[in-house]
Amino acid sequence: MNLALRDVRRNKLRFVLTALGVGMLLGTVIAMTGIYEGALTDALALPRAEGAALWVVQPRTFGPFAEPSRIPRDTRDLVRRMPGVAAAGAVTFQTVQTAVGGKPVRMFLEGYEPSRPGGPPDLAAGHGLTESHYQIVVDASSGLGLGERVPLGPYRDPYTVVGLTHGMVSSSGDPMAWVNLLDAQALQFAVPPPLQRRELAAKRNPPTTADINAVLVRLEPGASAGAVEQDIARWKHLAAVPEAQEEGYLTLFVIQKMQQQLGMFMGILITVSAVIIALIIYTLTMDKLRSIATLKFIGAPDRTIVGLIVQQALTLGVAGYAIGLALVMLVKDRFPRRVQLEPRDLIVVFAIVIVVCLAGSVLGVRAAVKVDPAEALASG
Amino acid sequence: MADAPQTDPRPRVELRGISKHFGEGERRVDALAGIDLTVRAGEMIGLRGPSGSGKSTLLNVVGCVSEPSAGWMRLDGDVVYDARWLRHDLRRLRLMKIGFIFQTHNLLPFLNATENVAEAMELAGMSSRQARTRADGLLDYLEVGHRRHAYPGEMSGGEAQRVAIARALANGPRIILADEPTAPLDSARAHVVLDLLGRIARDHEAAVLVVTHDESIFQRFDRLISLRDGRLVATEEIGRAAGLAAEASLPTP
Ligand SMILES: Nc1ncnc2c1ncn2[C@@H]1O[C@H](COP(=O)(O)OP(=O)(O)OP(=O)(O)O)[C@@H](O)[C@H]1O
Ligand SMILES: [Mg+2]
Fold first, then answer.
1. What pLDDT score does B250 carry?
2. In chain A, domain spans
């Protein structure tokens, strides 16, 4: 055992408390990388679950998740008849907020046509939509249970929860929910009767509930996505976005937002950790100055003394990292957002910790190298 | 550890005109002013003098911790100082040739007795296992073997002092420097330590220089040297080796 570890062993309690503090800081940094990766996974969960090869949307929009995309409902039949298309399903997306049993619930709602592309992936409990109205499938993260009634829309129509999914949230972290397309269209586009009468009297276009946000297209085996894409683009009011590009839009958006939000936090946390580690190493060194002077006095080379300090800094950093990682592992399933630890991120954080520890030892090492061995003689 | 002849003529420490001052101008303090001194192998010398007379400064200079301002110094046959340091590896020189015993024991608080002694040997390049075995042997020699697992904070002053002496002996030093080693000890313990240092001087053929204020132990030295204002003012031949050649010159005060 070397000097650094022996000192740690002799001052166990103090070392453990310090490592705990550093561990909490590093744990927060690790959690943030996990939240970042989790958000990416969440953002992609929905488009991947749809299993569509192409998304038909309003031209010059970034798809239904990024901005409003409004196309006529008959687009689905139009697309379905194109060569190479195996199936097409009309879908709508919207955010709904309501209260269940006095508790506010916000969900990202998809309207879809049962038996066509779209709708929830494998259910964790219950069943899919069996009736054409007032049934809803929700993600378990909403806190809702089977059989609960969810009031939606201007008339607070009660929707009964018939199925539950697991781990399906929108790119902003809201739980997903699915209802029948007709219900969703009514929720999104229907206007109340007084406004309807007023619009008719003014001879304006009667409001329609026949619009949708996108059509999901599944291709026949061997069909070329590019050819179908071009076929669709010939209708000037439609555009087809390949699945990969739809994912690209989503992650671009999520990455930008998360990088801004988390990047700053992580920067601050890493700086704070660096300052704290440097301070701790510096005080640990100051407490040992007499021992260091004695070591020099009896003839220890600077190498030994620098090693003592740097090894302690690294021990502290590695112990703090391990504690931080353990803390994150413990709480990550209880965290309100998905925390996804990726080996690549863990390695990067570890490398940062090592660099920070080395940088943090600089102050201590400088103080130690400057100590005059004669100070060992000072009585006291 | 064969008995060395008490008249071994080999000088371990030779100082010629060693001076050391601190500060400049009005604040200048001449801590040492032209010290000539020779200490031979097997000799144990007492260094006395009023506070501020330069005793610690002299030990620091001989121990190559403090650079003289002028003079010439030879340690164990090598000229190490001649108006400037002639060696660049002073720490290595200290590690291999010089053993220090401080007033307060100066053991490393986070190492136990064995580790404190073994550390000095490991620094000199010995394997950890060999160092521990040898360290335990030294602790037994100094009769503190039973405290080998104790930490400095758990030892009595006398025990810690003997562990510190064991550490000073770790690498078979040619020169042993002790600054008031008996200060924290009672008179009986002080005599034990002095006996020990005398035995080490003979067994290891080392030159031993001991700073002390303690009159009750003056008789234990081969020579007793008095310092005043940085000068040697008196040399008394006493005790067990009165026949030993005395070479400290007596400059006019
Ligand atoms: N680092 C230093 N800087 C300035 N002056 C110093 C320094 N070290 C010693 N001195 C001065 O040199 C003189 C000799 O000091 P030294 O410590 O050698 O005395 P000493 O004989 O050991 O005294 P004591 O018996 O009190 O230990 C004193 O006047 C002291 O003030
Ligand atoms: Mg002194």
1. 38
2. 3-43+255-377, 59-237
Nearest to A298 among B66, B95, B110 (CB): B95
- Give the CA distances from residue A77 to residues A85, A87, B150, in Å, rounded to whole numbers and listed in that order: 11, 10, 89
Q: Is the CB of B29 inside a 6 Å radius of any atom of ligand 1?
A: yes
Tell me: the pLDDT tens digits for A235-275?
888 888 888 888 888 888 777 777 788 888 888 888 888 88
pLDDT digits (tens, 9 = 90+) for B62-95: 999 899 999 999 999 899 999 999 988 899 999 9
To 10 degrees, what angle do helices A243-287 and A302-331 make? 130
Based on the number of CB atoms within 10 Å of its own CB, is A363 exposed (0-12), middle (13-18) or buried (19 or more)?
middle
Indicate the pTM of the whole model. 0.76
**Is the Cβ pair A301, B91 closer than 8 Å?**
yes
Query: Going by C-beta distance under 8 Å and a sequence separation of 6 or more, which residues neighbour residue A27?
Result: A323, A324, A325, A327, A328
Question: In angstroms, rounded to a whole number, what is the distance separating the alpha carbons of residues B235 and B224?
Answer: 6
Give the number of residues written for chain B: 253
Which pLDDT score is estimated for B249?
Answer: 37
Q: pLDDT at residue B1 above 60?
A: no
**Pure H helices in A81-178:** none
Share of chain A residues as helix, strand and coil, in percent rounded to the nearest 5: 55, 20, 30
The answer regarding whether domain B40-65+88-245 maps to CATH 3.40.50.300 reads yes
Q: Is the CB of B61 under 6 A from ligand 1?
A: no
Atom 8 (ligand 1): residue with closest C-alpha? Answer: B57
CB atoms within 10 A of CB A204: 9
The share of chain A scoring above pLDDT 70, in percent, equals 97
A172 touches chain B (CB under 8 A): no
pLDDT digits (tens, 9 = 90+) for A134-169: 999 999 999 999 999 999 987 888 999 999 999 898
Say if ligand 1 is within 6 A of residue B57 CB: yes
**CA nearest B175: which of B32, B28, B26, B39?**
B39
Q: Where are the domains positioned within chain B? A: 40-65+88-245
Query: Which atom number of ligand 1 is nearest to the Cα of residue B213?
Result: 25
Helix (H/G/I), strand (E/B), else coil: A293: helix
> Which residue, A285, A274, A290, is CA-closest to A308?
A285
Chain B, residues 199-228, CB within 8 A of chain A, namely none
Interaxial angle between packed helices A12-50 and A243-287, expressed in degrees from 0 to 180 and rounded to the nearest 10: 180
* Complex ipTM value: 0.81
Give the closest residue to B37 by CA, choosing from B179, B169, B217, B234: B234
Q: How much is the pLDDT for A223? A: 86
Q: Residue B61's closest chain A neighbor by CA?
A: A374
Q: Which of A58-67, A209-218, B85-94, B232-241 has the highest mean pLDDT?
A: B85-94
